[in-house]
Amino acid sequence: MSETKKRSRLFAFLRTNHRGRLAQIPIYLGKDFRMFIFQTDWKVLPMAALIAGLIAFVVGENMYVTMEGQFQCSLALTCICIWNGFFNSIQSVCRERPIIKREHRSGMHISSYVTAHLIYQMFLCAMQAFLTVFVCKIAGIKFPEEGFITKWFLLDTWITMFLITYAADITSLFISCLVHNTTTAMTVMPFMLIFQLVFSGGAFTLSGPAEVLTNVTISKYGLVALCAQGNYNSLKSVTLWNTIFKLRDSSSEIKDVIWMIEKEGKLEEILQQSGESMQEAAYAMTKANIFSCWGHLLAFVVLFALLSIVVLEFIDNDRR
Q: What is the pLDDT of residues 210-245, one digit of tens each?
């Protein structure tokens, strides 16, 4: 049976039965999972695994080893999670807007409809976060064993990635509720991605009003949480040494200094001292810092979930 016929039956069922809010949630949740199976929405899962594998291959070997590697991989993983979340739900509501309008007039509760999406998108985000961590692990990233918040570091990492993905997902769900067609939704999504990257506070040096905007981005709190969990401030830094090493052929004195450092086994000490001089207070490995990031990400979820309900409540006024 086609999805259109199923929706027609659902429409007739709601018109004659007028079920309550809680009773309607499983109905729409079932519809979402049917679309996951039969309309290939499941493709978001292997895509998430593939992207995670590419990132692990390119920058993964230095994660939890150097400051530079930790930062680059944390930023990349944050962007992966945001991309996954945005792509999950950017078309999920606007593609069936006429059906929503018709069913709302026949007794559908918008809160039930959005709640079903919240549960379904939570499932997708949890699976994507799991696949991302799993692929990074089998790709060779050497995760620490002991966690800082829980007993297992992989669980800590999964929680952070899930929250980043889910916050992005529900933000995108709100956009899907706000726009009126899939073309507009897909036009807005690249801007959302660019905004998250530019104002993450990591990709570019920001100041003034631009720096203030980082406080309203998912990417900032995701990046800070991953760097803090990776104990960024305790790692060595290789930027200074790599710069000096590139200059070895330009001066015999520099070449002699490099030779002496390596001969006396002082390289690790210098790299560690370089790291100590480049510590960032924002990436402090404290429970308060990590919980603050998790709290902000959850706040995005709650805010945009409520806004999604409010926006769709006015769908009957839509004349376009």
A: 888 999 999 999 999 999 999 999 999 988 888 888
Domain ranges of the chain: 3-229+284-317, 238-277
Query: Which range scores top for mean pLDDT: 6-15, 138-147, 164-173?
Result: 164-173
> Which tokens hold the place of 220?
């900032």
What is the chain's Cα-based Rg? 24
In this structure, the number of other CB atoms found within 10 A of the CB of residue 150 comes to 12
Residue whose C-alpha is closest to residue 177's, from 312, 6, 60, 9:
312
Task: Residue count of the chain, please give it.
Answer: 320
**Residue 8's closest CA among 137, 122, 96?**
96
Percent helix, strand and coil across the chain, each to the nearest 5:
80, 0, 20
Between CA 18 and CA 15 the distance in angstroms is 6
Q: Which amino acid is at 186?
A: M
**Rounded distance, CA 69 to CA 235, Å?**
10
State phi, psi for 150 to the nearest 5 degrees.
Answer: -105, -175
Dihedrals phi, psi of 11, to nearest 5 degrees: -60, -45
How crowded is residue 282: how many other Cβ atoms within 10 Å of its Cβ?
15
* Distance between CA atoms of residues 123 and 141, nearest Å: 25
